[in-house]
Design goal:
The protein is an alpha+beta fold and 353 residues long. The protein contains 10 helices and 19 strands. It folds into 2 domains: 124 residues, Creatine Amidinohydrolase, Chain A, domain 1 (3-Layer(aba) Sandwich); 213 residues, Creatinase/methionine aminopeptidase superfamily (Creatine Amidinohydrolase).
């Protein structure tokens, strides 16, 4: 309820009557509801949770402190609520609404002032509670365990799709609800694709294999990357691996609450640039992690967020060379005032299978 009260302070500050929330991860954060269809309407006095018949029983068990409205048309119900209370203004999640949805909302609330809000709920999700950190750690543990099992299956002749399917199966077998994103399995030359979703390509001797995957445990995500080798790697790829490994460790050593996200990105980026591979590291150092696999803050060169205590971020530098291959290493870390705690236990040393 404290989270909701923090949002409702905005209504007072901005003299608004309501806050319309439709992004499901944010709804889960605010209510605990894990279904696939719902809307929240926060007001100064009464808060409304709107969903349909499919979630009547589930919402009764998961949602408290709200008037629960079971219906077949949320906009019609919201229109009735606005009319009943004579509301004249409302905030909405502008970054989670497409143009068609906005036009439908505006049409339903004819004459109501609509004020766009961006990442107001997400600003609250950055710092994790001990319970949330425990769930993320459990997701990380499942991903670590899966990685150990997958190493036994990485052999010449096995396809990337086979490995991807095994990742999904094993994570669920070990207690996950689902993957937090489609597993990235990129072998050989395809490892130069930062987001090389698994293909029909078969693993060959000498291939680097980038494995980037994670899972969801009780609503919270993990996200880990390791690059391993089936057979002895080339001297060029081995050199790249060592550079990425050192860059990643430097960033882990520098990570702490109070540092700027841009400054932390620069720790790894500057080292990679010193080694003459700056142009081959084209993405940010990492991102926040929680209910969503990509949350605030972004760790890159474009925006300088001050990193906060008890937030979880990924640290994942990489080097990618077209038609040769690539390397990325990623850990999930919890930030504290004195440094960070690496949640992953999987080895990051160069591994030849």
């Amino acid at each position: 309820m404290t989270r909701i009260q923090n949002l409702k302070k905005l209504l007072d500050e901005l003299s608004l009557d309501a806050f319309y929330i439709l992004h499901l991860p944010n709804i889960r954060y605010l209510t605990g509801f894990s279904g696939s269809w719902a809307t929240l309407l926060l007001t100064k006095n009464t808060d409304y949770f709107l969903t349909d018949f499919r979630y009547k029983e589930q919402s009764a068990k998961q949602v408290s402190g709200f008037d629960i409205v079971i219906n077949y048309n949320n906009l019609e119900e919201i229109k009735k609520i606005f009319a009943t209370h004579h509301f004249k203004s409302a905030a909405f999640e502008a970054d989670h609404m497409n143009y068609e949805s906005y036009e439908l909302l505006k049409g339903s609330l004819n004459g109501v002032q609509l004020k766009p809000m961006v990442k107001k709920v997400e600003e609250l999700t950055v710092q994790k509670t001990p319970e949330e950190l425990s769930k993320i750690q459990k997701a990380v543990d499942i991903t670590d365990r899966t990685f150990g099992e997958i190493l036994l299956r990485l052999k010449p002749g096995v396809s990337e799709l086979d490995i991807s399917a095994e990742i999904t199966y094993l994570q669920k077998k070990f207690g996950a609800q689902k993957d937090s994103f489609d597993p990235i399995v990129a072998s050989g030359w395809r490892s130069s694709l930062p987001h090389g979703i698994a293909s029909e390509k078969k693993i060959e001797k000498g291939d680097p294999i980038t494995l980037d995957f994670g899972c969801v445990y009780e609503g919270f995500c993990s996200d880990m990357t390791r690059t391993v080798f089936v057979g002895e790697p080339s001297t060029e790829i081995k050199n790249i691996y060592n550079i990425v490994h050192d860059a990643q460790q430097r960033a882990v050593d520098a990570a702490k609450a109070g540092i700027s996200s841009k400054e932390l990105d620069a720790v790894a980026r500057n080292y990679i640039e010193e080694k003459s591979f700056g142009s081959n590291f084209g993405h940010g150092l990492g991102h926040g992690l929680g209910i969503e696999v990509h949350e605030q803050p972004a760790l890159n060169q474009r925006v300088a967020h001050t990193l906060k205590k008890n937030s979880v971020v990924t640290i994942e530098p990489g080097i990618y060379i077209e038609n040769v291959g690539g390397v990325r290493i990623e850990d999930d870390v919890i930030l504290s005032d004195s440094g960070c705690t690496v949640m992953n236990k999987s080895s990051k040393e160069l591994m030849v299978l």
